[in-house]
Amino acid sequence: MNGRGVRTYSCTDCNSNLSNKYFESFYDRCEYANKRIAQRNRKILNLPIWSEEDFEELGKNIKARLAGKLNFKALVLERLRWQSTNEFNEYRQEAQDYFNSKTKIISKEWMREYFSVVKTIQSN
Question: What is the per-residue pLDDT for 39?
Answer without folding.
Answer: 92
